Amino acid sequence: MNYLKSILLIIIVSLFGSLFQHTIALTNLAMLYILVVVITAIRWGRRPALAAAVLSVLVFDFFFVPPRYSLTVAHAQYLITFATLFTVGLVISSLALKAKERAEAASQARLLKEAEKLQTAFLNSVSHDLRTPLAAISGSLSSLLQDPGIAEAERNSLLETAAEEAEKLNQLVGDLLDMARVEAGALKVFRKPVDVEDLIGTALGRMEKALHGFQVSTALPYGLPEVDIDFPLMLRVMANIIDNAVKYSSEDKQIEIAARREGQFVGIEISDRGIGIPPTDLEQVFRKFHRVRRPPGWEGTGLGLSVCKGIIEAHGGTIRAENRAGGGTVIKLKLSVFSGDPHAQG
Ligand SMILES: Nc1ncnc2c1ncn2[C@@H]1O[C@H](COP(=O)(O)OP(=O)(O)OP(=O)(O)O)[C@@H](O)[C@H]1O
Ligand SMILES: [Mg+2]
């Protein structure tokens, strides 16, 4: 195929040469053939370039060098032209190829370095995030084991800590698994028609503990259509977004969730009055492990929103983040409306 493309270029140059044979000097035409050899080398590699060089010399000789339409050459000087055409073509091609290879190697090395950095950051962050709850769990459990006569209130509080931390671990491992599935293209989406109110209500119910002290308001218009989603996966999305809204709110503990129909989609907005996301990070926060530089105190892996994006995109929906007038963040989702209504008959 690459040979064919190169031959096509030679044909084009030859046609051009025969159209302008009276105006264009033979040496200039030879330059055009050199150009073809160089292009062939850069785009399609060494062997097609060699073939192009040989073919160019033959075609040039046959069609343009007197006596025309024969491979014999009237003047010895043309032999020099051929030799030059051939050598220059090949030398330039091999230089160009080397430059290209070097550039590729450099960019690959850079990519590798970036990937390595990311992996180290990932391992650091994940091992830290796994260790913190594990340490808390094993701390609580060993206190319980060491002191059998521990007061009931204290025992309950230790058990509660262990359970909470185990839940954090569960969440993190779940995020990591989801991420791996999204990346491997193995995320299975089992869609069914879901009532948006049900989705939001269930998500809020599950996060009840985390939402303690928050004022949560919802605005869901009557008659909102059902959305076509995988319910458990979308619950994970909602949980991650609400978890962020809680985590990144300090004084003003208000969360608003609103939904409305937008054509073939239902738009859902989750808004908080927290510390907000700097404008330069609004798109980046959806990248794996991307965390906004913040003063110490806000823990996280930087996985939550990238998992959300993976899940939402597997549904054919969209997710983005915006800053809110008056402070805070809005996360905007779009989910497809369920179109085949199973209750349609009857
Ligand atoms: N509601 C929000 N308000 C302010 N900043 C936010 C909000 N949601 C996300 N961010 C910023 O976006 C970054 C990425 O969020 P993401 O949920 O992906 O990771 P995380 O919360 O840091 O960690 P994880 O969710 O994996 O525990 C966060 O580090 C945070 O700085
Ligand atoms: Mg998060």
Q: What is the helix tally?
A: 8
Biggest sheet features: 5 strands, mixed
CA gyration radius, whole angstroms: 33 Å
Oligomeric form: single chain
CATH H-level superfamily of the largest domain: Histidine kinase-like ATPase, C-terminal domain
What keywords describe this structure?
346 residues, alpha+beta, Heat Shock Protein 90, two-stranded antiparallel sheet, 8 helices, binds adenosine-5'-triphosphate, binds magnesium ion
Give the helices and strands, then pairings.
Blueprint: H1 2-19, H2 26-44, H3 46-64, H4 76-146, H5 152-184, E1 192-194, H6 196-206, E2 215-219, E3 227-229, H7 231-247, E4 254-262, E5 265-272, H8 304-314, E6 318-323, E7 329-336
What does this protein look like?
This protein has 346 residues and is α+β, with helices and mostly antiparallel strands. The protein folds into 2 domains: 104 residues; 145 residues, 2-Layer Sandwich (Heat Shock Protein 90), CATH 3.30.565. The chain contains 8 helices and 7 strands; from the N terminus they run αααααβαββαββαββ. The longest helix is centred in the N-terminal third of the chain and has 71 residues. The site of magnesium ion has 5 residues, from helix 7.
Summarize the structure.
By secondary structure, the protein is of the alpha+beta class. The protein has helices spanning 2-19, 26-44, 46-64, 76-146, 152-184, 196-206, 231-247, 304-314; strands at residues 192-194, 215-219, 227-229, 254-262, 265-272, 318-323, 329-336. The two termini are 59 Å apart.
